[in-house]
């Protein structure tokens, strides 16, 4: 492994607000410290297909406040095959890229880890996902913005819920993690959250409806984590069957949760971790994700970052229960 | 018909942002001009069930910026029966209410018109609906706010559409009227709108896809007016079948379109028409809807306001076509 | 005057949200109808200095939601001289521009009018100003967005005013016109507005303070139109002297009123008038401003548009007075 | 000291978004755990003057999304005197309040500490201030919202700065702490921040202007921390004198930084610390501030919380420097 001169940067997986701020930070901190920067388009697919472009500071001008990613993104099936990864490696050689910064979530960093060990290549990860399901960083780039978007939507839905005295089941994203559901329920003053982690309680709905009825509130909001089988539609249907007196509605927030101007928090997180990625490379780090914990930039080995058990703080359930009385 | 001393105010039908500003305006302008004001809860149902409360200026303090309606709202089935309307009339007599201000959309003003003629009662309407489907006013209370909400959501969705190079079908409200779909498509820079009024064109989708393919844009947004049969899901399914190369997604904005802080425009419209309702009563008007046309407060007879053919300006289709090239 | 083949477009004067949407509309509708489009940078200065660039549809892609103007803008002193205008004309000849679309406010359209008559050149105006002080159009591009920005700011300030029980004097823009002040006062539920047009009332402040004290509200908001001598600071000082019991604060909103994502209303207005400019040129119109009145696109001769007496509806003062009780 | 039955809650000092969410959390968690809750109006002044009201869960219904504080707030001069504090104590005795939750910033918690030790009274603090200048908690209630507000304002101002190619000096709050200035500069992509902590560098402006000129950017934004002598007006004047070629403007954001709907982050922080205050009381804690560090609720002794040297991370200056190239 020689001296690193050129750094490639790509975004991968679902887009998250703040990815552009991260691209900007990697590019500018890289150039500022003497590296060449190359932008790789369409995630690992673009690496396979050699969609690579040299970046200057101007390429990332005026993007800090934009949602989405100017590098485009994708979930690459080909990169999951040895042939795909071989092609990707050949692009890196051809483009003389010595290190790769991957901005993405759990799946993308898993891909980066595998690629890094397979080809002994320097990969640095940035936690870019709205799901907050990466271990070792207090939050992920995009999570805070998405939280604000959800809360703003629920504030709007509450106007209608109260005016019509209805129960709303609002479905939010989060994949297998309940961070978005649990915390947006607290932040929006929802009456309950139904989350994947709470598996000990066989019937979260029944528990809530009992409490809800006891309180005799006439309108309420339940936040439901997305789920193939037990999403908002499922619970709404159950309430319609079991409690026919209630006027029940469903709102599935869907893709609007991903976009939008990033919050101040996410822009700063993206800026600090982007600068941190360049520093890590300069310090000879490799195969780590850059995170922020307790207001400090930290390096988290890939295998720690992507472990599946980032725990949801169960005390938050108590917070929600006490505050929705 | 004696002198009017007490005015009742209610909201009816789907809630719309700005209804609270209208309640405030009716209440304060009424009190300011020497009337007693009584708030009637839950629309015509509350009139039937005597859910009535005297209002002072304090009752409407701090509500101008709130979405929804502090008076609650409902779609009353009982009011559609002669018995229901009789009970409603008895409440008015009992509560000594001499005139009624109804804030609502097409269905609510139709109810007000029928009630007014049946009992020779002074009813004044305010155009409170996000659908903009009332004739005689440049816009309805709530329409502008909902337009801004939709456009904000589509701006967010576009971030994802562009980052992933997808086609999004975004479904918006509007009942039988395409105002929201057509105009939000123009305002959000969408590539097409599919609206109920455009019935001459048997296949709006095919027309758009041809143009879209010709342009070879890789991502695009199509706004679809809600419809039981031909909503966003229907068109997405068709594209998936007929153009399998595209990555197609659906977003149904749903109830979040109704709520939220009203825009400046809607607060002013609500304030002016609310003051106008009191003026109309003082001038002996009855059975008119208060609107604003060309920046002037106007009185629109109920039968004109609720006629079903408020036309969508077909020139707007040309605007959208020319600007989405 | 031969057939028009190439159209130049520029923005001039203070920037206004929606200017980009207007540039996009002129460009795309122009190209769609067979014209060449050239963008002129930095207003009339850029015309004098030949800062001109051919525009394609891509040049205006993704700008509909951006505040400011990608063409930059300036207030040109040189264009006020005959020599400056001569140079500007020479640029047009050299660049083979046959018609000019000027997006700007009162001063810019006055310049366009003078230039058009001096050189017998086809100029079309679009009403781009936050001040709403152009005659013949229901509103100007940028006015609605600025109204929403002001109202959002005042909503925030009210939180503090109520929490601390203070009087706030909030100064807003508007040049010599009170549209922004008067209407934002209504929309924000302010207790009073002090506007330049209300010259009959020698002492708007005293009138308000009497009413305010009578009502014994403990916090209140007064919107003040900007003015070299009698701005918010002036009135705050007077209250401090004359009513020392009150806790008085000032907030001068300043330049943040100009920027930001344009509202749905302004994007549509910009789109319709931009398309209208191209239609007007095709119909042989010249020296008109394109406006929208009563939901219809209209052509307003420059001299009408810039006349100084666009009246503020004095009934609005009554609306504010009645609703702030 | 007997068993605690009744808990009083008050807000003090400058208002901050999220204070209402904190009042709600203290009230509901208190009631949920068997305490009586009493709301004290107008901060320590209200304690002195016995402005106290029993609170039920309904008193705090619908306030989680509201800026400001329903309990009002003030900076009490009388509470700084022994006589004032004695009266305050007498109110507590009379109202049978056994513990006091004080929501406020540095000054308010200093007052609480002194009062607690003087009368051996159980006081618990919540960090309610936009300034983020309390030690022991990752952030204070209100700071995140204010950061978002500032960044939104600067995004708007940038539209104008770029359109007109100007230098803007934007002054933000923060008292003696540069958190808001430094971090909002990073988040808004500003070219520089001028902060009180950076005292080693005698001339932050000169350093920036050199770099700025070297980069030959035509527009730029400098965030300036509020300061009696060296605020935005001071630096703008200097640039006008020393670099007369630049078009310089000033924007003082002022009080609008305080209000507005709290962000998701601040609502959660307020909810968790509010619940934490009740838990602390139940555990026999006293004279501690409840904070959140590294996603965990922590108890911080008052004397630690209010020590004056909460350090600004000087690495952030490097982040800003590298990213503004």
TrEMBL record, chains A, B, C, D:
<dbReference type="Pfam" id="PF00365">
    <property type="entry name" value="PFK"/>
</dbReference>
<feature type="binding site">
    <location>
        <begin position="75"/>
        <end position="76"/>
    </location>
    <ligand>
        <name>ATP</name>
    </ligand>
</feature>
<dbReference type="GO" id="GO:0070095">
    <property type="term" value="F:fructose-6-phosphate binding"/>
</dbReference>
<comment type="pathway">
    <text>Carbohydrate degradation; glycolysis; D-glyceraldehyde 3-phosphate and glycerone phosphate from D-glucose: step 3/4.</text>
</comment>
<keyword id="KW-0418">Kinase</keyword>
<dbReference type="InterPro" id="IPR015912">
    <property type="entry name" value="Phosphofructokinase_CS"/>
</dbReference>
<dbReference type="GO" id="GO:0042802">
    <property type="term" value="F:identical protein binding"/>
</dbReference>
<feature type="binding site">
    <location>
        <begin position="105"/>
        <end position="108"/>
    </location>
    <ligand>
        <name>ATP</name>
    </ligand>
</feature>
<feature type="binding site">
    <location>
        <position position="249"/>
    </location>
    <ligand>
        <name>substrate</name>
    </ligand>
</feature>
<dbReference type="GO" id="GO:0061621">
    <property type="term" value="P:canonical glycolysis"/>
</dbReference>
<dbReference type="GO" id="GO:0005524">
    <property type="term" value="F:ATP binding"/>
</dbReference>
<feature type="binding site" description="in other chain">
    <location>
        <begin position="217"/>
        <end position="219"/>
    </location>
    <ligand>
        <name>ADP</name>
    </ligand>
</feature>
<comment type="subunit">
    <text>Homotetramer.</text>
</comment>
<dbReference type="GO" id="GO:0016208">
    <property type="term" value="F:AMP binding"/>
</dbReference>
<keyword id="KW-0963">Cytoplasm</keyword>
<feature type="binding site" description="in other chain">
    <location>
        <begin position="129"/>
        <end position="131"/>
    </location>
    <ligand>
        <name>substrate</name>
    </ligand>
</feature>
<feature type="binding site" description="in other chain">
    <location>
        <position position="226"/>
    </location>
    <ligand>
        <name>substrate</name>
    </ligand>
</feature>
<dbReference type="InterPro" id="IPR022953">
    <property type="entry name" value="ATP_PFK"/>
</dbReference>
<keyword id="KW-0808">Transferase</keyword>
<dbReference type="GO" id="GO:0048029">
    <property type="term" value="F:monosaccharide binding"/>
</dbReference>
<dbReference type="GO" id="GO:0006002">
    <property type="term" value="P:fructose 6-phosphate metabolic process"/>
</dbReference>
<dbReference type="GO" id="GO:0005945">
    <property type="term" value="C:6-phosphofructokinase complex"/>
</dbReference>
<feature type="binding site" description="in other chain">
    <location>
        <begin position="173"/>
        <end position="175"/>
    </location>
    <ligand>
        <name>substrate</name>
    </ligand>
</feature>
<feature type="binding site">
    <location>
        <begin position="24"/>
        <end position="28"/>
    </location>
    <ligand>
        <name>ADP</name>
    </ligand>
</feature>
<keyword id="KW-0021">Allosteric enzyme</keyword>
<feature type="active site" description="Proton acceptor">
    <location>
        <position position="131"/>
    </location>
</feature>
<feature type="binding site" description="in other chain">
    <location>
        <position position="158"/>
    </location>
    <ligand>
        <name>ADP</name>
    </ligand>
</feature>
<dbReference type="InterPro" id="IPR012828">
    <property type="entry name" value="PFKA_ATP_prok"/>
</dbReference>
<dbReference type="GO" id="GO:0003872">
    <property type="term" value="F:6-phosphofructokinase activity"/>
</dbReference>
<keyword id="KW-0067">ATP-binding</keyword>
<keyword id="KW-0460">Magnesium</keyword>
<feature type="domain" description="Phosphofructokinase">
    <location>
        <begin position="7"/>
        <end position="281"/>
    </location>
</feature>
<protein>
    <recommendedName>
        <fullName>ATP-dependent 6-phosphofructokinase</fullName>
        <ecNumber>2.7.1.11</ecNumber>
    </recommendedName>
</protein>
<keyword id="KW-0324">Glycolysis</keyword>
<feature type="binding site">
    <location>
        <position position="106"/>
    </location>
    <ligand>
        <name>Mg(2+)</name>
    </ligand>
</feature>
<dbReference type="InterPro" id="IPR035966">
    <property type="entry name" value="PKF_sf"/>
</dbReference>
<feature type="binding site">
    <location>
        <position position="14"/>
    </location>
    <ligand>
        <name>ATP</name>
    </ligand>
</feature>
<comment type="function">
    <text>Catalyzes the phosphorylation of D-fructose 6-phosphate to fructose 1,6-bisphosphate by ATP, the first committing step of glycolysis.</text>
</comment>
<dbReference type="InterPro" id="IPR000023">
    <property type="entry name" value="Phosphofructokinase_dom"/>
</dbReference>
<keyword id="KW-0547">Nucleotide-binding</keyword>
<dbReference type="InterPro" id="IPR012003">
    <property type="entry name" value="ATP_PFK_prok-type"/>
</dbReference>
<dbReference type="GO" id="GO:0046872">
    <property type="term" value="F:metal ion binding"/>
</dbReference>
